Amino acid sequence: MQSIVILISGTGSNMQAIVQTAQREGWAGRYGARIAAIISNRSDAAGLAWAREEGIETVVVDHRAYASREAFDAALMAAIDRYAAGARPLVILAGFMRILTPGFVRHYEECLVNIHPSLLPAFPGLHTHQRAIEMGCRFAGATVHRVTEALDCGEILAQTAVPVLPDDTPDTLAARVLTQEHLIYPRAIADLLRGERGDQVHARPCP
Ligand code: GRF
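Above: the input record for the complex with 5-O-phosphono-beta-D-ribofuranosylamine. Below: its predicted structure, written as tokens.
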């Protein structure tokens, strides 16, 4: 059985979309994959309560309890690997707001994916919607990508684009993008479980 572990820090709406798709499509029977746990670095992450109600195991690894990034990541790896079930788990970052150390990224190489709310390689980092509006972009979107040591720079697995409307604020644009994230993230994970690359646009070398 392929274990899937989802890391969140807040609302977890992408996590919810992934869990609901996995249940609806029967990923256990279809791909031999199960969502083993939801892990958060914040005990007050709203998504944790939702996951518990769904009967999914939840774990909190509070980053404030660790003196360094390395110590936090070591604890996080130990928490994730408890769900390894014989094979490396697929680790899904879904609004997980911590920068991961190179050691963590190498440990889950090829098995670590993220969704970023921009059309990468445009606007890596924070405040993507505000920056897209300020630059006069006509389109914004989101990208599912593999995680590498360079921030928001791994291989693109899926993308979605939405128009930027004249009256958009960062919040209205973020909401429009988020509804599309909920569609492409579960699809991209299902493609990975099937061993396909889905609607990937192109493989992009990192600088
Ligand atoms: C999403 O916009 C995602 O692209 C970004 O963080 C946000 C998480 O939202 N990485 P949610 O917690 O999934 O609702």
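Notes for the reader.
The longest helix spans residues 170-193.
The chain is about 35% helix and 20% strand.
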